[in-house]
Every structure is written in structure tokens, then in C-alpha cells.
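Contributing: when you submit paired examples, paste them exactly as shown. First protein:
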Amino acid sequence: MAPKVELSVLHPQLAAPIAALLNDYRVWRSLSDIVPYPYTEKDAQDFIACVSREGSPLRNTFAVRADGQLAGLVGYQLGALNKSHIATVGYWYGQAFWGRGIATAALSLLLEKVETDPQVCRVEACVFAFNAASQRVLEKCGFVREAVLKEALSKEGKLYDEVVFRWVGTPR
């Protein structure tokens, strides 16, 4: 049976569980270099404080719970300057939660929130080309591959291709 997936507001008590999940090289490997590794509880506290700050571009970041247990984070942020109508979604999950449909369920819940945001006219997601599982999650949620940007992402001193997806709506 598929786990019950819910989104909840981030709060300081989640710092330790977030750090525990994110301080896994296999999880961190598919994230932007802006995320430190090793990932500490202090890093998580700082992130939660940033999300909670009034006017933060990360204010639409949520904890993902699967059967009540923290599984990861999902969120969207609006672009800057003349692209303020573009929402970029992102997510990550602890390895123990991979392959169980949690990412697809959580992203679907997030997209319900995105649909009600009057500022959003376009939704996109960008992933490392080597992250086939994340690409499949996006496709299941109604995203289509729009472009492959050659050597656009850097990770551990190497360049990787980035795949850009655009949301065309929830599949019927």
C-alpha cells in the first residue's frame, strides 16, 4: 500500500531530521552545489530560518511526510526580475523513501498549491541529466522535457548536462 503523503510547514524541530536525511552523499549528489556537504543541523536551522523569514523567496518550501515520518522537502520559488512569473520547483528525499511514489505524490500536492498562486504563469524544473528517477517523477506529474543544456551544472568540480522541464498541467 502506498504511504500517506502530506505537506507541512517547516519548523525548528525538523532541523535534526532534515540534517540526518540530507547528510547522505547519495541524496546530496543530485542537489545544487549551494547545498553544503556534509550537511549539519546548523545548516538545517539556518535554512528553516530563511524559509520562515517574511518575504523569503523560499517561503513556499514544505516538509514532506510519508505516514507521518519526515521524508524530504519540496517547494517552489518565483524567479527574479523580469521572470517573476516563473515558478521553479525542487525537491529531495531521503534514500529510504526512494522508489515508493512519495516524490510523485508530494510534487502533485505542491502543484495544487502552485496552481492557486496568481503570480505564477509558468512552472519549470531543472535536474541533472544523470538523475533519471527525478526526470520520471516530473513526467508523471505532467512536466515535459523542454531542453538539455550542455555542461550547465557544476558538481564536485565537474560539468554536467541540465535537463529543463516545463509543467503543462496535471495528466488526466
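Second protein:
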Amino acid sequence: MPVSEAQQKAVNKYLRNNFDDIKTRVPKGKREEYKNRSKVLGYESFNSFVIQAIEEKLKREE
């Protein structure tokens, strides 16, 4: 189902106002490996896996 230009602008505005972007680089081939492993482990998305991993690491370091 195509998205109208107005809808896309609204989505982009929402994302800009509610989220920050973090860009990270991984060795070639690891991106898909990480995504697949997070799915096998039962995470709804790779993003949710990364956020939870960061939160757990920060909690352990306190």
C-alpha cells in the first residue's frame, strides 16, 4: 500500500521529535548475523535487542 507524501512527512516529523538516531558500524556480514540471532532469541526487532543490551550493560556497570 503506497504512502502519501503527507503521511511520510508526518512520520518523519514524529520520528524527528521523539527519537534520536545512533549509528554504529560492524564488520561486513555481522549485521545480518546479529539481526538473525536477535530474532532467534525472540526479540521483536534488532533495535529492541540493542536497546535492551545497552540498558543491561549500563545497569551492570553501576
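If you have annotations for the second protein, write them as plain sentences, like these:
The mean pLDDT is 96.
Residues 52 and 58 are 10 Å apart (CA to CA).
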